[in-house]
Specification:
Layout lengths: L1 E6 L2 E6 L1 H7 L11 H18 L9 E7 L5 E7 L12 E4 L3 E6 L2 H11 L5 E6 L2 E7 L4 H8 L4 E4 L2 H10 L1 E4 L3 H6 L2
Parallel strand pairs: 3-5
Antiparallel strand pairs: 1-2, 2-4, 3-4, 6-8, 6-9, 7-8, 7-10
């Protein structure tokens, strides 16, 4: 577990797969409405407070963002909110990012049209299995816009770690790293 504080109101906790196992939680199970997730968050805030030498109140208003890591584990970003500016904020919540969008195409024509029309420039990998094509997109910004654009051409969903791993293991790799650019420049 790595703990750092890039700013006074920000704390980052980097958890390995082993850290997650010791905390008895997975990324997929994280949901702030469950007592198990709150227990983990409170434990991590306690550890962070000790490591940073300051008191961290788990009931303080904050945004908690969970980002999965490809090798397992996840990074939790805590943003402590100014209580004077959050009078209307009533709930704490956990914002999860899958980091990956899966687009499944039934044919090559739809795949080419999506690549040409959606203007995606991030990391992308293309797979094929039984005449179907899966494009995994590593989305760092506006995932909603990317999903809306690709949904005109295929089935789109946020991809959990298990689905991504299953695709990598059982589907045939066609293009890696910049698959959308490869399709556009075919």
């Amino acid at each position: 577990m790595k703990i750092n504080s890039p700013a006074d109101n920000r704390i980052t906790v980097d958890l390995t797969k082993q850290d997650m196992a010791e905390l008895d939680i997975t990324y997929e199970e994280m949901d702030y409405s469950t007592i198990e997730t709150r227990r983990v968050i409170w434990t991590l805030l306690d550890e962070a407070g000790k490591a940073l030498g300051r008191e961290l109140d788990p009931s303080r208003r904050m945004i908690i963002e969970a980002v999965p890591k490809s090798e397992g584990g996840c990074v939790l970003n805590f943003t402590l909110l100014d209580t004077a500016r959050c009078i209307n904020t009533r709930k704490q919540f956990l914002k999860k990012q899958s980091g990956c969008i899966m687009c499944e195409f039934g044919n090559l024509d739809s795949l080419y049209r999506a690549a040409e029309n959606c203007g995606f420039s991030g990391e992308s990998t293309l797979y094929e299995s039984s005449g179907k094509y899966r494009l995994l997109l590593k989305c760092t910004d506006d995932a909603g816009r990317v999903m809306r654009c690709f949904s005109e051409f295929c089935t789109v969903k946020e991809c959990d770690g298990l689905t991504c791993e299953h695709t990598r293991e059982h589907w045939n790799l066609l293009a890696q790293g910049n698959a959308v650019s490869v399709l556009i420049n075919r």
